[in-house]
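task queued by scheduler; priority normal; single chain, no ligands, no partner chains; default sampling; output format set to structure tokens
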Amino acid sequence: MKNLLLAITALLLPFMASAQFTLSGTVTDSQTGSALPGATVSITKTQTIIADATGHYQFSNLKAGYYNLRVSFIGYGTVNREVNLEANTNTDIVLTSGAIVTEDVNVTSTRASSKSPTAFTNLSRKDVQKNNLGQDLPMLLGQTVSAVTTSDAGAGIGYTGIRIRGSDGTRINVTVNGVPLNDSESQGSYFVDLPDFASSIDNIQVQRGIGTSTNGAGAFGASINIQTTTRRDSAYVELNNSAGSYGTVKNTVQLGTGLLGGHFSFDGRLSRINSDGYIDRAFSKLKSYFLSGAYYGKTSIIRLNVFSGQEQTYQAWNGVNADSMAAGNRTYNELGYIKSSGTYYKNQTDNYTQNHYQLLYDQQLGSKLSFNGALHYTKGYGYYEEYKNADSLKNYNIVPVTIGGTTFAATDLVRRLWLNNQFYGLTYNFKYQPINALNIILGGAYNQYKGAHYNNIEWTQQSTNIPPDYEYSRDNAKKNDFNTFMRAEWQAGKFLLYGDLQYRHIYYSFLGFDRNLNNVQQAVTLNFFNPKAGVTYEFDEHNNVYASFAVGNHEPNRDDYTNSTPDSRPKSENLKDFEVGYRTSQGIFTGGINGFYMLYKNQLVLTGSLNDVGAAIRTNIKDSYREGIELDGRLRITKQLSWAANAAFSSNKVKNFKRFLYSYDTGAYVETDYKKTDIAFSPSVVAGSEISFRPIKNGEIALISKYVSRQYLDNTSNTNAPGVVSAGTSSFAQNRYLNSYFINNVRLNYNFSIKSVKNIGITLLVNNILSKKYEANGATYPDIEGGQVVNYNYFYPQAPRNFLASLNLKF
């Protein structure tokens, strides 16, 4: 019997030796229990991974045996643990704060923690980089909950946008290391000004709803909190080159010194992206760089970031008109058309450069108190050049000229619309933790913006006796934005109590109309109080429920002020946000469900009416709301197969809406009243899915899907006045909405290494693999002609099947 057992054991030894197992676990903070996304986990010199957004790590296809598990994270002591791997093993690691202060204090002051009673999604650098083949940052965030993205050029490069819960970029607060990115006047964030910025991002948190107090423009639908490059312990060089459809090429070089002498580090990036775009004459020529240097002390960090972007784009921001769409031409771009010659102006371009400077300072003031602050300066300058056909000279304060007995009151001309602006200020945060169960943050910012808007004429077809670069208008604006907030989280047994109070003061000086319709410099002052409160109950360390209530206020934008008088000027918007949800983390499954009710007061929308200066500006609507349910989860079905999915179901309504249409039959405006209709660009269903299969070691196949239901172009739910029908026969002309769409992308990725290269990554991304024809954005300008409503609709078609391929080399 003994000899038989020895023989069987000998026969099984090769199979036992070749068996492959999985080592996984979660990395958390010893004091708060919160996950530590971005922690470095290694088992050998060549097998190193980064913990994901939930702090989870996993090594697959390991042979049985002993492994030295090493886990490190900036600001925490390193943990080494020996693991005897004889079966699939789960090893959780708890890290304790170390002697060196952590850099993430820069952003955690305006972020939700793992237990905060609000809805959010964390994305690690790995999450961002897996699709970073050249498309703009909004496109890389398209799979987050309730997000809808669009691209003017149709291929995701150039001017792109993102809506979250139906709220556009002017209502989404964006910060970079706690510094506001939103433009102070338009309040939008233009990622085209920072090409390939995603390559310099360490992590992102996307909050939905009002969220936590933050700096800059009010978070009226969501906030995007970005942290850029942080310390890497070892030196590196990375080359990333991509190419794909529509002449798209991306070249990126990154390098870093690692930690020098235990105190210094330097990182840099240089990028170039070119694309012709899917839409005709919608090219993008983009350049950028990112430089960062840091000093690490035992209780302090000083980091200087300098980054810049330069963009030139042939604009496609008018979209494609309905007639062209109906005729089958989905790529028609009318901008820059010269009627006299039937050609297109080659320099119908947007040209803008933006330089950013950030000096970040973190200081541990004791075992219970820490401080972080930032000084920042942003300089932007550039122009949009356009060709105008037979434009009236009186629009440019030019007296009509007489030549050869003929008086010319209009002429073809080329003009440049300039913006030369600067934004600077400081942010500050004190974090006080007197006991483990209590965390208090006092923070805020003071920022100042100065913007010079001026417009020049470069050329006229007819002689007009004007000097070169004739300046026909100028508007100098100034905006001061101050806010301060105090937030506290108190762990009382299984309850986490959350409170957040913010005060915000705004002073805005601009050139606008007074009550006598004189265009004069004037100013407005606004004061906002934004309280927030919530509670989280923990069933155990893996499950919790939460509820919160928050108030937000949002100021009108530049056009609302400059195109109105004090009598017609719109009021600021107010939002009351109710959130309730459940989160779970069960090892192979993490996910949650969140319900929300967002009640608006005085939301600003276009109604079609004109104000007392004859401008069609946005008008306050007293009552509107959004209510819905959001679900998201990630399931590891097997060690090779995982599925991440999310879905949002919502009802978005405006009450007692009045729409005004100009009638060319009577020369008057026709009013139509609606009791309850859908808010524009607010789909009732938004869903995303990513199925990932790893058939071989370091190889992945992913199917990425997105569904967006119908979106209306205005607030009428596509309903016309009684007895009035739409003119035109095509659906593009009749309907004032975007059809629902379901698109699928496929991503193939394989990583391997050779002796002289740490990692060689090959990625192929095929977008819209089924070539679905769809439009992600649009606009409508209806009027009444001959007793009929005529819809002048414009759409932004997105590209059919297209691809991007990349080769990534890490040294």
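post-processing summary
- The radius of gyration is 28 Å.
- The mean pLDDT is 91.
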